[in-house]
Write a structure and sequence with these properties.
By secondary structure, the chain is mainly alpha-helical. 70% of the residues lie in helices and 0% in strands. The chain is globular, with a radius of gyration of 21 Å. The two termini are 26 Å apart.
Length: 294
């Protein structure tokens, strides 16, 4: 699994965090254990790879350091990019626990977040000093770092528009807050759908253009992604595996609440069209709250 797919998963979690939290997504306690185990395994692999660089540096082997960078540059990229999913999922766990009024997911996800920060700091130290790395490698990794930070703040800001707790997991609190304010100002569902599509495609382009084509730890990344998806209940997806719409999520929440209270009356939903028309959307392009990413 490539880091681009990890970034797309982070965008999906951020997009559906608030409505999925209403469904009480965690149905299997083993999902928490799976996420802990999968994340710890990948962290151990990262630290083993980083330790080899420290060994070659202490031994004074410049040629071995150059070979190390050729073999592990993709691993540094994955540490930087996959931090998007680690932060977004930790914010999602915080939102989910706050919605359910319990402490179940957030301690585990926050612990993994802290461990990921340790690996990130070691990787940034290597980028800063650049022993054995070429100038193009360090410049490229620094650009990837900035791209990852900005996109993470955008995704966290999308979640912070409804839950302020998510701001704690952003890089720049002010940037996250500004992003949340822009999302709160958007009330047209058609415009939101356009922004979601634009974010997904732009995120893929931004990450793919700054990373290598080969994944360093594809199996470890796949295990983490599988563990993240394991947090969501089967009712969060339709029969072909696609996420259900917000309308169906609200209906499921209403049905669950009525079942708990013993109310057998059917749920009737009235469709309220958007205030804007198709001609209005074509004449005035939607606001894109990612202007500072370009």
């Amino acid at each position: 699994m490539h880091s681009t797919q990890i970034a797309r998963l982070a965008a999906h979690v951020a997009d559906r965090a608030t409505p999925l939290a209403r469904l009480k997504c965690v149905t299997d306690p083993a999902a928490i254990t799976n996420y802990w185990v999968a994340s710890r395994k990948r962290l151990d692999l990262w630290h083993h790879g980083l330790a080899r660089h420290s060994y070659f540096e202490a031994a004074g082997r410049p040629l071995a350091l150059r070979v190390w960078w050729k073999e592990h540059a993709a691993m540094i990229e994955e540490i930087l990019v996959s931090e998007m999913l680690t932060r977004v999922f930790a914010a999602f766990a915080s939102v989910s626990d706050a919605t359910a009024n319990c402490i179940e997911m957030s301690p585990i996800t926050h612990s993994i977040f802290q461990s990921h920060l340790e690996a990130r700091n070691r990787a940034l130290q290597m980028i800063l000093f650049g022993r054995g790395a070429t100038v193009s490698q360090t410049v490229g990794l620094n650009r990837l770092r900035r791209t990852s930070e900005r996109w993470t703040d955008l995704l966290i800001g999308q979640m912070a528009a409804t839950r302020c707790d998510a701001i704690l997991y952003g890089f720049d609190p002010q940037r996250v807050e500004d992003q949340a304010v822009e999302y709160r100002s958007i009330h047209c569902e058609r415009e939101l759908r356009g922004i979601r599509t634009f974010i997904d495609s732009s995120l893929v382009i931004a990450v793919r253009s700054r990373t290598s084509s080969v994944a360093a730890l594809p199996h470890a990344n796949a295990q983490v992604a599988r563990a993240v998806l394991g947090f969501f209940a089967p009712t969060s997806f339709d029969s072909i595996g696609l996420p259900i719409s917000d309308h169906r999520i609200r209906a499921n929440v209403a049905l669950t609440q009525r079942a708990e209270t013993g109310d057998a009356r059917p749920v009737i939903w009235e469709h309220t069209p958007d205030a804007t028309t198709d001609s209005d959307v074509r004449s005035s392009p939607p606001k894109t709250p990612i202007r500072w990413l370009l």
